[in-house]
Design brief:
This protein has one domain: Rossmann fold. It is globular, with a radius of gyration of 15 Å. The two termini are 13 Å apart. It has 197 residues and is of the alpha/beta class. The protein is built from six helices and 14 strands. The chain is 24% helix and 33% strand. A hairpin with a 2-residue loop joins strand 13 (161-169) and strand 14 (172-175). The strands form three sheets. An eight-stranded mixed β-sheet has the order 2-1-3-4-14-13-12-9. The longest helix is centred in the last third of the chain and has 14 residues, at 183-196.
């Protein structure tokens, strides 16, 4: 059973719909005691980091998310919040992964900000979530802030600059793109997380 962390993120319905297509049982909750019953956790995210962290604090989820023992997948902002902090309103995040998220420069080699649309992911490390997915496949991105490339980076993407688009730390996985909006290849990644991680 998959537990989806419900804290007001805008893409919860699309994540739920993707899991329905895969015939995966799931539920949405912002209650740590309920989420504790899940075999795996998906932490989706759309929007602004400070507001998201405030919502997590109100729900009593902040400390719980730092200590999840089951496989965990952070999506978009859900990945970024795994880092120590973000320059978006100078917000302290969960600190599961070291590093700071930065905003794409306004003059990003003529590229528009936010980074929105399809882009490729170069796979750097063999990982269960990329089982039968080739390096260079395209996924759907929507974001203005980007993660640094660190020792936990297992996938990177180029948009004017190189940034970390996939991370892996113990039982924590994170993707900057939206697998639930990335067609068949995104469903394959979600299926890998559900079945292999």
């Amino acid at each position: 059973m998959i537990g989806i962390v419900g804290y007001g993120a805008g893409n919860i319905r699309s994540v739920s719909n993707a899991l329905k297509i895969l015939n995966v049982e799931h539920f949405v909750s912002n209650n740590p005691k309920e989420l504790e019953k899940a075999d795996k956790i998906i932490f989706p995210g759309v929007g602004e980091a400070r507001s998201a962290m405030e919502c997590l604090a109100k729900s009593g989820l902040t400390e719980w998310l730092k200590n999840v023992k089951v496989p965990f997948l952070g999506i978009c902002l859900g990945m970024q919040l795994l880092f120590e902090r973000t320059t978006e309103r100078n917000t302290n995040c969960l600190g599961v992964i070291k590093g700071t998220n930065e905003k794409f420069p306004e003059r990003n080699h003529g590229l528009k900000v936010p980074h929105m649309g399809w882009n490729d992911v170069e796979i750097l490390v063999n990982c269960p979530i990329f089982h039968d997915i080739k390096s260079g496949e395209y996924f759907y991105f929507v974001h203005s802030y980007y993660a640094p490339i660190t020792s936990e980076t297992i996938g990177k993407t180029f948009y004017g600059i190189e940034f970390g688009s996939v991370v892996w730390h113990n039982n924590y996985y994170g993707v900057q793109f939206h697998p639930e909006k990335s067609g068949k290849i995104g469903l394959k990644l979600l299926s890998n997380f559900v079945n292999l991680c």
